[in-house]
Amino acid sequence: MLHRRDFIATSLAAAALAPLAPTLWSRGALAQAGPPAKNLLIFYAPNGTVHHRLRPTGTPQSFTVADNSILKPLDTPRGNWRPFDDVSFLDELDLATRAGNHEGGQAAMLTGDGGAADPGGGRSLDQFLAQTLFADARFPSLVLGVQTSAWGAQQQTRISYESAGVFTAVEDDPRAVFRRLFGDLVGGDVDKVRRRRQSVIDLVKSRVDDAKRRVGAEEKRKLDQHLTALRTMELRLAPIDLGTCDQPTAPTTNAPNDNDSFPFVADAQRELAVLSLACGLSRVAVLQHSHTVSPVAFSWLGVADQHHSLSHADNGNTVGLDAFIACEQWYMDRYVDVLEDLRSRPSPHGGGTLLDDTVCVYVKELGDSRLHDQVSVPFYVAGGGVRGGRWIKCGGQKHNRLLVSIARQLGSDVEAYGTGGGELTELA
Amino acid sequence: MNRMAFAIAALSTTFALSACETDPPKQGEGDDPVVCADDAAVYDRVIHDAILQSTCIRCHVGGGLADGSRLVLEASLGSALEDGDALAARNLAVVQALAQETVLDGLSLIVAKPLGLHPDGHGGGVVVEDGTSQARRLRWYADRINGVVDECAVPAEFDSGGVCDEPVLARRLVRLSKDEYASSVAVVFGAVAGARAREIARGFPADVVVENFEDRGRLAVGELLGEKLATAAEDLAGVVVDDAAILNAAAGCSALDRDCAMQFIQRAGRRALRRPITGEERDALVAVYDGVIVDGDGHREGLRWVVTALLQLPGFLYKEELGRSAGDVFALTDWEVAAALSFIFTGAPPDDALLDAIAAGTFATDRAALVTRLREDPRTTAQAQRFFAAWLDFDAVVRTPHDAATFPELTPQMLGALRAEAEANVGDAVRRGASLRDLLLQERTQIGADLATFYGLPAPGADGAVDLAGSGYVGLLSMGAFTAGHALPTESSPIRRGVAVRARLLCDPLPPPPPNINAAPPPTDPSASTRDRFSLHSSEPECRSCHERIDGIGFALEAFDGAGRRRNRDNGRELDLQGTAVDVDGETAEIEDVGGLARLLAGSEQVGACYVDSWARFGAGVDPETLGCTLAAPAMTADVLDAPTSLVGLFSHRHSEVDGEPDGYAPAADAVLDPVDPVDPVEPGSGAVVVFARETNRWNTGACFAGDVENGSDTDVVWSSDLPVEGTVNNHWNSVIEDLGNGRVRFTGAEWNASLPPGSHADVFGFCVEF
Questions:
Q1: Interchain CB distance below 8 Å, B222 and A225
Q2: Count of structural domains, chain B
Q3: By CA distance, what is A306's nearest residue in B?
Q4: Cα–Cα distance for residue pair B108/A81, rounded to 1 Å
Q5: Which residues of chain A lie closer than 8 angstroms to B208, CB-CB?
Q6: Residue B121: domain span
Q7: Are B409 and B551 within one domain?
Q8: Are B148 and B114 members of one domain?
Q9: Which of A78, B280, B466, B609 gets the most CB atoms within 10 Å of its CB?
């Protein structure tokens, strides 16, 4: 069976491999070629898990994955690649959260439960890294959703925070994402249009500045957010540089908010997220599937009940439980899709594959879905220099440590995130 | 409970408890402790009624989920069994003791726990967000108990006593909602552009929602929306300038020259900004136009970029509620009041006629006339439909997945028809002048033949209505938009329906279930009815404290299946439609079937109060919880669909922010709201005479204006006009002036120019002001 390393060795120059030797989180690599990871991709799917249908059989040293385990797609080879070889399954990691339940877990998951005064400033990890490390990227971050917005933007439906208590907007329509990413000016006098857009932005900025003089602190914050938006828009007036990427074709997904469109939207958003990293347009991408208390019915699997209802099926309800596991396996398969896409593309930053450059982490907001708790919340980490093939028991450590480790892997020097600190040494 | 009457001191920052008025506290004088307020009264007013009684008590009660915690409250005060005062005293003692206990940096337990700041967190349920009114109440109360603040000076904010009489709210900018964006484009550029804007705005990112309504105060322009607004503006500019009819209608002229462009900017600017465009704004837009002309791209292209800019101006995107300094507070301007009320009543900004009337000072002293005018606007119907759709969540029926195998008849078309039924009935109610009570109890509905067949009802008559008498369907709650919207994919859900009634009609949202509770819906049992399965499930002691508030209401709706159709049996079992509705208007009532529930709600003061509070959040972006007073709820029986009239008082005054005067605030900046030749050219023979002031010069402390007169009549007229003037007139010529107060000055011609012939007359008079 071929290993991921084998794949790279056969497709890329061996010289490029040297600094990416099997011991990862390697400081040596960091010293030579910047941080081990260049990009972050966060994959989210809601409503917790059922541990006895999740965990492998055996010990972390020697384990197998049962057919009815949520992990099965990780253990199912795709061609000569076994996804689990690239993935570390982090078990027994608790979410740091004060409030608990769906909402508390959702809010704490990427913020480390921090407020404005804590490390990270109440921002979710994606926004923190986008703002502190990748502000010069064309899209410092992209937050792409699959049916996340029918309930509006609120604690239950948002996982990304651009500042404490302020949600990052989510784009649920792949067609709109495509237009944002690749829909540059077509025809006409391009420079002239840019100049005029610039003059409009200048005008609007000056009026927002003027409005700021007339309001108090609270509204000033609102207008500052507007000014930040205008400045970002200004940067994007520059022509798109697609690097080695070809202009891709636009997605055609219609009715992205219809329940039955869910799998198609998920596919399209994944492709766009991966493209954005592959073409060097973005450094941080979030793929948010639905939201906590998810109402999605996996009709394409023949499942009629809604995901959240199923997530509460107790052990006596075998039909409901099996249906929930089928949904969870489907999500895991989508995570594997992301990894497969990432490893099939070269990195725009030189060297190996996009997966070698990208930390791809799968996050959830709850541990046991039936109990609404934040104990043993499963996380999965792959790529970006993280060694795979592991089932890591974290012994009840708080998830802040994982957030710190990911941030450091991408070149941040944070030592704490949210309400806790230290690295997750087990990941090294 | 001790219901002492407190006067609201709306404009002061504190109010005195009544004992203080006769015996003012003398701090530091003598050794006597300062006793100025009844502890129980302060406790009741500041935290019991506003937080403990409304939120905490659902779990922190004997038999509740937090029964084992140190905060266990007495729920029923003043029951027949035990003396209410004794129970209230027990609550007070418990809370006082907890308030005195501190953790961490001296943080009181009654702050640390509910705000989730305690090292052990809050066991579950609801965490109070810091910075909210509830958090401020808890913090202040803890400080009072611990002697940190003057125990007599209860902030006026916490007086939850009387009816709101023009409360003083914060100065703010309220970003347009998606709907308001579209309706604004329609008012500025006409219906075609408005329709396109509505389509575009659907793609704007989801806005912040709190308990069913957009949180208006928090709507902002982030990166994604900013980009989309820019794209939308370019798109809409194309719609406007590529169609000569639309362009000329907006401009009021058709010449391809700079004068017509100027007129376009004035007219469209006033509509877009809901006030006269300022000289600065006008000049900036003209500069955009001129830039395109210099490039040689012509008039239309110039206007394309003017429109693009106009639709991104903060004055367009944010409704201004800033006011002008008037002593201790800021008085909202006529323009601001009219715009705010117009959006509440009609969902749209003022049109030209209303703007003209404002400019003419028609409503300066007569708010009632403005309200009368807005109530008569036909767009109030659509606005009521939008409100009800948000309040009762008409979209739920379309959004909730329905299992195609169980309910094959629930096609997308059918779901759309169910939503449309609810909307049509609201529209019908508005047109009939029906009340909320009528809507809940009416034995008629507006449906098409397909839906009539679906429901098993006779076909509608010529008026589109079906008589429901004797059918078992009664009012809004029996419509599929509600019953199938709040259902599970394969069956009815008494829980979802009960929660929807509680959260939406009674404004009593329930806390999420705490961790470590098995909240699984009962598995399907072929031999049991839905009611039986859910009853068993909710009888668990830890579930009961919330579910007793939900289930009894939901069970009364069990005659409707998961698709919203009336049924006689459920899973072969007889239906049991009896329910106990707990804590509606503070009472427990036995109800049966949708009719019993509807009658209970239709007679409930709580529903009436919830209705107007919900309107306040929907229309005014004001959360009544932060008001510290109660909005007058219209009677359930009379004209109640017109809740907006109850909100008029919210648009009077504003206070500066808690951190003091806004930075850099200067009267000169305020003066940018001065009108600059705001009106349309007057056609000869139209009979209209219009007077306007054109700014000719401006400096930091003053400005000068030239007055122009358009005589659109066929004969000489004696002109006179009341103009809004910022600052004080310190010089004037060719005119006689009379100060009318409220920032208005009447200008009349001098002897030699009092009468003017038909036509346009520039520089007829002039004046200067100092700020």
A1: yes
A2: 4
A3: B489
A4: 57
A5: 152-154, 167
A6: 14-162
A7: yes
A8: yes
A9: B466
